[in-house]
Amino acid sequence: MKRFFQPVQKDGSFKKPNLSSSSSPTPAVNGETKTPAVVEDEEENKSQKKEPTKLLTWNANSFLLRVKNNWPEFTKFIDDIDPDIIAIQEVRMPAAGAKGAPKNPRELKDDNNSSREEKLIITRALSGPTFRKYDVWWSLSDTKYAGTALFVKKCFPPKKVSFNLDTSVSKHEADGRVIIAEFESFRIMNTYVPNNGWKDEENAFQRRRKWDKRMKEFVLQSTDKPLIWCGDLNVSHEEIDVSHPDFFRTAKLNGYIPPNKEDCGQPGFTLSERKRFGSILKEGKLIDAYRYLHKEKDMERGFSWCGNPIGKHRGKKMRIDYHLVSEKLKDKIVKCEMHGQGIELEGFYGSDHCPVTLELAETTVDAC
Prior knowledge:
The chain is α+β, with helices and mostly antiparallel strands and about 375 residues long. The chain has helices at about 35-45, 65-80, 115-125, 205-220, 245-250, 270-285, 290-295, and strands at about 25-30, 30-35, 55-60, 85-90, 95, 105-110, 135-140, 150-155, 160, 180, 185-190, 225-230, 285-290, 305, 315-320, 320-325, 335-340, 355-360. A 6-stranded mixed β-sheet has the order 7-8-4-3-18-17. A 6-stranded mixed β-sheet has the order 9-10-11-12-16-13.
C-alpha cells in the first residue's frame, strides 16, 4: 500500500547480505562430503507433491531495502515456512535498459555503476541456500516504483508465465503489476493493485476504477481452471478488515472531500472500492481464504498493513493483502495466516506489510 502518510525511505549505504552459510560444506555422510546444493536437490526430490500447495505473499516495500537491512531474519522466516511459491509486491527495482531506450521489464537494470551494484546485491542474496531452490520471474517498472516478483520452487515448473491481464499479449502491465503462473490444475496471479488515492483525477480514482473493471473482466473470462489470486490488493473489504473503521471512513487529506460520498475516506476503505471488490468476489466466485477460516476480528494478528509507529496512524491497521481462491478450491483451504503483529511491526521485516501465507491440501504422486 502506498505510504501516504510519510515519505518513502531512500536507499542508503548497504549492508551486504551474510551469505557465509552458503559456502559451508555439509558434514560427510559415509565418507562423502556433500555440498548444500546437493543436499537441497536431494530433499526436493523427496517431495511427493504434484503441484504447489504452500504460498506466501508479501509487499516488501522495496525488495532491495529488505535485502540490505532485513535479509537474515526474512530468510530464516522463509526457511521455517518453506513456501512453494513466494509472491512479492513493490519490488521497486528498475527494469533493464539505458536512458531513452526501450526497457526490458523481465530483467534488472545494470547499465551503470549504481544499478550494477544493486543488481549484484540482489543476485548475491538470491544465490544463498534459501533462495537458490527457486526460479524467479520479474515484472518491473521503468523506475524504482511498483514492480512484482514471483519465486517458484524449481520442482514445480509452471506451464506458462505471463505478465498482463490480457494474456493474449506479451507486454507487461504498466508498472509491472501482474505475474500469472499457470500450472496443470490452476493459475496463480500475483498483483500489486494501484492505490486509489485521495482525489478524483486520472492517476488516482479513475486509474483504480479502470483497473477494477479490467480485473473483473479477467476473472470472469478465466474460468477454464481455478484461480488463486494473491498480493497487495489495496482494499479492506469489510469493517472487520480494519482496526478503526470510523477513523478510516472519515479520513481526509488536506481537508479535501470528494464530490461523490462513496469516494470519501482512507484509500483502500472507500465505499466505492469496497463495492467493486465485493462484486469481483461474488461474480467471479472467489473465496477470501483468510476470512473463510477466521470469522472474528483479531486486533493483534488480523491485519496485514500497519501504520507508522509515529504519528496519527500509530496502531491503525488494515487487511489489504490477500489470498483469494476459486470456489472450486474452497475445500482444499487448510490454513491462511498473517505473520505480523503489534504497533512496533513485529514480523514485518522492515516493510509496512507483513507476509501472508496460504496452505492448500496436497495432491500427491510418486515423485515431484
